[in-house]
Structures are given as structure tokens and as C-alpha cells.
Amino acid sequence: MPSFDIDAFLHQFVYDESNPLLFNNGFFVFFFATFMALYYRFRHNYVVRRYIFCAFSLYFFYKASGWFVGLVIVSAIVDFILSNAIWRQKNKTKKTTLLVISIVFNLGLLFTFKYTNFFISLSNDLLNTGFHPLNILLPIGISFYTFENLSYTVDVYRGQFEPARKFSDYLLFLSFFPKLMMGPIVRAHDFVPQINKPYEITETDFAKGFYLIISGLIKKLVISDFITLNFVNYIFDDPGRYTGIENLFAVYAYAIVIYCDFSGYSDVAIGIARWLGFHIPTNFLSPYQSKSITEFWRRWHISLSSWLRDYLYIPIGGNRGATITTWIFSLLFFAGSYFAGVHLLGFGVVGSLLMSAGILLIFLLPAIIERKKKGVAANMNLLTTMLLGGFWHGANWNFIIWGALHGIALAVHKVWMLLTANRIRETKLSRILAVLLTFHFVCFCWVFFKSADFDESTPDFDRAMVMLRQIWYNFDFSVWGAFSNNYWPVLLMMTIGYLIHAIPDNYADKLIGRVGRIPLIGYLVIFFLFVLLYGSLKSSEPVMPIYLQF
């Protein structure tokens, strides 16, 4: 007769670094069931309900990241106090000082944990300082809840939102467990008013939440994890060992991997929130169907791109004019592009100067065409936003390169629109070509983004360039037969992923409307089928969500 191991049982309730609590963790089923039982029992008692939510959210974060949960609590306390002080303060100077304190505190936390070693390495490379890197672990989710803290205090400062009077309201906004670790980044003026509303779930809410949860789990656990383990990681780890066609399809594969990984997690978070009575805006809208890079950023990681627009692009000048921040980062960018040309691309001094001048011309052209001086500042503000957006993703030069490429592409698209406005008639063929061009540019940028994930045995930029060279110089379509025979399961899974991506964004609402009321047994059968599918494809090697590292 098997004995009951009390120590092993109790160990399930403490943080385990090798097995953090995520939506695909078996313990999450127990966690969520217990939470829902208590939440539903006290659904009409707003105070108790709120405290239950806060306690379970903080415990969820503890199980996912250990004692870093303390950072969430500390930042919540600081920003709750500062936001209420900002709201009460009538003196403009003192009000601004409080906002600056909040910004310095939040960015200071983010900088300390995420960027300290990056700047130590930069100092060592440029100044030969000989500083030793610090043993600093990156707290899970710090980039996301830092941005939420900042948007909260800025909105209060602008007078757009009255701060929460109860600390538990603010703590719940910040620690809401479905979105705490990997977003979406929610705005307080959208979320906080929902906290103390009556708990009412319609059949449509339950059905939409179920659809989002199951489809999100399929995208993340079935499609993304399978392609990652069986193809993407092998090729990106050492692209020089593989043919051009393998490298090209690895790029296509990673494009659907990162989409399914992050949009899948976002869908699960939004679906769970829907079950709990909260409405969180959609975070992805079929981004690879975009006809331009501008449209892509309206469809990809919408909560981040809108945050960067409202709290970075507009404050540093937007399309109104330039600030000192604009010119500092623009100068750093053009100096960096010159040195990258000399030391990374091997263009030499003259070639690097010409490259930098060409890029500068791209940013000047809109102002020249429109004969508006402010156009230069607007483009430089956009470039600064994309550079910092890339840097937000990680303390790595490849993320900065990724952001810079998107910033340049946005400027090129603006020039194209100015040159072709009302001159080229849009046809079905032109739309298809525009989608293909945009998709392949995004894929090109993903090469640099993904190459930042690996160890230091090969420099990240070199790995990316090796992959691009393999695609350009070692592409031989005659090996397609052997390639497709070896990787047909991966190709099948990629096809399914892209077909799911092609599903219209309003399909779920239409499907739920047509099907009508689904009995409980129907939901159970669908969930059981998903478990069987996941069980048949599940690998013993866990695949952490991509955005968990950000």
C-alpha cells in the first residue's frame, strides 16, 4: 500500500525554481479551482472578494518567482502613496516632483535588475574599467508591472484618473494574476472601475472565456512548444550547420512560434479574466496580415505599442516637436550605426558614413517632402521610441538592433506614403504583395530578436549574420525533398499555426452566436480532447514562455 509523503505534499505549495507556476502547470488547476470556490462564495462581499483576489494573486506570483513577490508589494505601496499625494497636491512644482520620484523609483528598480550588467559590460568594453558583473536575477514580470505603475501615476498627474482610495484596489490592479507576469499591460482607468462591480457572468462571457483559454493553450502548448523543441532551437543554436532552406524555414517557424507563444498566453489571461468578470482588451489582431509595418504595430502586442505611444512617443514630443531626449537618442543611434558599420559589418569608414547618411536621409525626407520642419522631430521621436521599445525587451544589443530596424522601417513607410499618396491604385495583387513584403521584413527582424536568446559562446549579432548568410548564399531548393521528409511534422504544425493566425478576429463571437448555448458536458468533452492532444505531444523538456524573460 503506497504511503502518503507529507513532505512531498507540502513541497507543492512552496516556490520551486525548476518548476514555476504557470498556466500549463498541474498545480494551477488546484490553485484556480480553490480560488474560484472562494471567489464565488464571497462574490457579493466586495471587501472579502478583493482581499481573496489579492492574496491569491500574490501567492501565484510567489509560486512563479519566489520572494521577488516582495518587489510587487513594495512598488504597490510606494506608487499608491505617491499617486494619492500627486492627486491631492495643488502646487504644480511639488506635483511634478512627486511624479519624478515615482518615475525614478520605478525605472530605478527596472534598471537595477535588468540593465546593471549590460552597462557594466559596456563600461568594460569602452573604458576598460574591469568591473565584475553582479549576480543579479531578473524578476519575472518586472518590465510589465513597472510600465503599469508608471502609466498609473502619469495618468493621475495628468488628471485623467482619480487614484484608488483603497490600497487593496491598487494592489489588485498591479498583481491581478492572469496578467501579472507577461501582460497584457492594462491601464488603471480601464481596470480599476471593474474591481468593485457586481460579479455577473453571462453564457457569452463563459463561452468566450473558454474559447480564448483553449485556443490560447493550443497555440502555446501544442503549436509553439512543439515547433520550438523540434526545429527552431536546433537551427538557431548553430545556423552554420544547416542549409539555407532549413535556416529560412526556421525563421518562418520562429515567426509563428513567437506569435503563438505570446498571443496564446495573452488569450489565456484575457479568457481567465473574462471568467472572473474583468474585460481586458485584445492584445493581438492577426499581425502577419498587415499590409505595412505601421499596421503591424497596430496589431502586434497592442498593449505595449499603445503604451509606448502614450507614455513615451507623445511626452518626448510626438509629432509636435523635439526634446532633449529626442536629440540625445538620435545622436547615440547615428553614432552607433557608424560604429556598427565599421566594426560589425566591415564597411570601413567611408562606407559606414554613407550608410549613416543614407539612414539620416530617410528620416529627413518626410520633412523635405511636406516642407515641415516638425517632420524631422516626429521621425526622430519615433526612432527614439522604437529604440527604447527594443531595449525594453532585454539588455542586449540585438534587441536594440531589432528596435532600430523597425524604427527605420516606419520612417521608410512614411516616405512611401507621402510619395505615393493618391497616385497608386490599390488592387488585390498589391495588397497581397504588401502583406508578403511586410511579413518578410518582420521575419528578417526576428532573426536578431531570437538570436539574443542563446548563450555567449557565439556573439548574438554574429549568429544572426551567419543565419542570414546561410539563407542568402547556401539556399538550394533541390534539398526540399529530404527537408520535407525529415521535418514534415514541424511543417504540418507550422501550417496549422498560420491557418489559426488567418482566422478572422471576430470569428469567436460569430461562432458563439451561431452555436448558442452549450451544455456543460460539451465544455468538458472539448477540454478532455485538448488534454489528450496535449498529452500526446507534450515533451519532458519544459518550454518557458518567451516573454517570461522580459
Structural account:
The chain is an all-alpha fold. It is 71% helix and 0% strand. It has 22 helices and no strands. α15 (348-370) packs across α17. The longest helix has 35 residues, at 203-237. The two termini are 47 Å apart.
**How do the SSEs run, as a string of H and E?**
HHHHHHHHHHHHHHHHHHHHHH
Oligomerization state: single chain
- N→C terminal distance: 47 Å
Counting DSSP E segments of at least 2 residues, the number of strands comes to 0
Give the CA-based shape.
Answer: globular
Can you give me a brief rundown of this structure?
With 550 residues, this protein is mainly alpha-helical. The protein has helices spanning 6-11, 26-41, 46-65, 69-88, 92-114, 116-127, 142-158, 167-175, 188-195, 203-237, 244-275, 293-299, 302-313, 324-343, 348-370, 374-393, 397-420, 428-451, 460-473, 480-502, 507-515, 520-537. α3 crosses α8 (167-175), α8 packs across α9 (188-195) and α14 crosses α16 (374-393).
